[in-house]
């Protein structure tokens, strides 16, 4: 084969000479050589595996050797189902035990010796026999050592609370609660309880002046204020003296509030209209109306002003007039005829103005043809005459509909905007 070091080279004498006949012998030799090379195992240097089977390819590429892995993860199926002692840094894994290297401390998860369930044992080094904390899965208990003792569980220097902390025969957590005052001194408060089938009391303080009591029907807090940071809910009425906050939100008044405003909050709200002494104009609430605030007031020397939220209309009110009011004799109508029916004219000084009011009359050049009466044409600014207009398209078109209202000559006519 003509590959050297995995690099392919054509057979000698393959290349032809310009303007000469291609020889069949070297040509066929090249074809046979390419065929043989294409059917042979491609070497690794040429992007192949150098093998003709999958197993041989893995061997050639080193894919069957885990030592060659540089990235990715190994599928669980390729991992061993059992494993003996394994050290990860300073941590040893050994048949269900996790221990620190060169140390007797370890955690053991096993069948245990006390019952048939799984147990968890925590061992620490000590003189002689290591100390242990033992969790028995059968009895759901946690002990200092298997078979005996009550564990002492602490967070920092503090022992975690458990039922053994209860004061005997009282059900209280402690006889005294210690509190640090503003100067940093610990102050003790007595916490005692007395109970029966119908009532009970918790005394706070040494003299019995502060307590929370259930007298058989009510919870009583005889002194001090009750602060609630958050929601306070009640399924029945709430009393404040003789006043009552009812479950529907109404308030039952007493004394001066009742004699001044009525028996309840609902009655007081219903009587607001009578207290005003006049009937106010309702703002908003109608069909399609918003709740925007409307201000109406006299502007001295000007007239009645209007403002809606932050928009000041002064004395020009945004009122739409229709029906008989639209044809009234005022500045918007003349003799009962609306202003829109009268011709208007433009006051613009722009020589390139294209938007004229309805009724505007212009003299327009009509070079192409003379329009008939009332004929509609498109009107443009005359590109060759800065002061004229034309029916020939050449510059900007005027807005609206324009109709001829009389010829001036064969090439000029009067046009009026009608729409």
User: How many separate domains make up the residues?
Assistant: 6
Mean pLDDT: 75
Secondary structure tally, helices? 5
What is the overall shape? flat
Give the distance, in angstroms, between the N- and C-terminal Cα atoms: 93 Å
The count of strands amounts to 30
Structural class per helix/strand content? mainly beta
What portion of residues is helical? 10-25%
Oligomer: single chain
Strand order of the largest sheet: 3-4-5-6-7-8-9
Work out the strand percent.
Answer: 25-35%
Instruction: Characterize the main sheet.
Output: 7 strands, antiparallel
Give an account of the 3D structure:
The structure is a single chain. With 419 residues, the chain is mainly β. It is 10% helix and 28% strand. Strands 3-4-5-6-7-8-9 form a seven-stranded antiparallel sheet, with no helix packed on it. Strands 26-29-30-25-28-27 form a six-stranded mixed sheet, with no helix packed on it. Strands 12-13-14-15-16 form a five-stranded antiparallel sheet, with no helix packed on it. Strand 21 and strand 22 form a beta hairpin.
